[in-house]
Amino acid sequence: MRKQKGFTLIELLVVIAIIGLLSALAVVSLGNIREKGRDTKRINDISAVQKAMGMVNQELGTYKPDANCAAGKAIKDCVGGELEEVLTSIKTVIDPLGTAGLCSTSCVQGCEYAVRALTADAYMVQFYLEKGAGTFKEEGCYALTEKGIFKD
Question: pTM (2 decimals)?
């Protein structure tokens, strides 16, 4: 009797099916990693805004740093005043997806960080998380205020 060399068709099909299944699981897993990465960037951006607002308040005694940052504007448009002096990269503080308008008007996936309120002693910036990251486990709208970050 002759010895076979190589694999049978059935063996090859089984190996291909297993590789396909593992590839599909990897793609799904990578999708979640990208979403969490975008959420991490959002939280880092908002933390930078929080620190900058605190520094402006400490320096000026008010959260309302200048007329260029008002309710109804995107945080990236708060340029030309004390807030931009403290947070020089304010023009780059944008949502990684940023395609659905301001978060204050439509808080859906990929909305721009929006100043919802800004007074002398309080502020609110709204943003969206896709899957949640860090201590913020849920998706949805969040609000940054002088007291911290809260689910909106």
Answer: 0.78
